[in-house]
Amino acid sequence: RRSVWFRRSVSAQRRAALPGSGGLSPPSAALSCFSGAALLLSLPLVRFRRSPFCLLPALCLLCVVLCCCSLLPTGLRPLLDWSVIMAASSSSTINTNPTEIGVFRTENVPMQVITLRLTKENYFSWSPAMTMGIAGCGRMAYIHGSNPEPARTSDVWHTWFLEDNQVKTWIFNSVSADIQPLILRKKTARDMWIVLEQMYGQKKTAIRTYQVMKTVYGIRQGNSSVAEYYGALKAKWKELDYHSDIPWHCPHDQALYVAHEWENRVFLFLAGLNDEFEGVRSQILNSGEVSSIEDVYSCVEAEEQRRLVTKEGK
């Protein structure tokens, strides 16, 4: 009986003319205008066919919806369902926007942006790494000085104070324990940055250049991997280039000097390798033309991987 009644009701619904259907089929038009009421009515009509009193709540709800729809303009009626759906979905959605104008957000802010710690000897590796970390968090203005402290009566002073102290925390947590007391009581992040640059970033100091040069010529692979050995050399080469910043007047002469310098560094890299790489070292030197340092490193690293795979196979 229920199925027969349901089919008859659907047929009657299809024959009925619904105002404002916009070319939709009667069931679709009914759902677009009274989606909540139609869905609520379907269950009571099917389940309680023999008890008409159970239909009273649903009929009351239908009357309310019809009255509301009649009061709305024609162009807004199709939007009724979407407004209800969007309101329900927005109530269960959490706003994850990390930034808001005039508001400082502390969620997901790291206490440390790099793992490398500044010592008295690695400033020229630490400085670019720290710069990348701070820039990735959007706080470069606090160490470059382009965002000075505003007046304390300003509306943005509290935000500036919180963000500047966050940068100070990053710098403080990324230096060694013996350097931390030297910058602890500095007023701003910019002051911290300047002090570290003045102490460890000075160019063309003879004693520092001598120390770097001595370290470069003393580096050997030893128990390190090829990648670790090459990384240690590159770090010292960058520091050496920083100290020997020659003001060239002829670009052609500069290019010749740079090419010659990198050729010497290829020889230095090959000389520091372990004896197990004698085969690939001889192959590179006997090729006639010295390849770039990147190509040489790639060949040596491939040989290291081949040896590791061979050992695992045994």
UniProtKB/TrEMBL annotation:
Alphabetical UniProt keywords: Membrane, Transmembrane, Transmembrane helix
Top-level taxonomic group? Eukaryota
Q: Where are the transmembrane segments?
A: 53-76
Pfam families reported in the protein's UniProt record? Retrotran_gag_2
Protein name per the record: Retrotransposon Copia-like N-terminal domain-containing protein
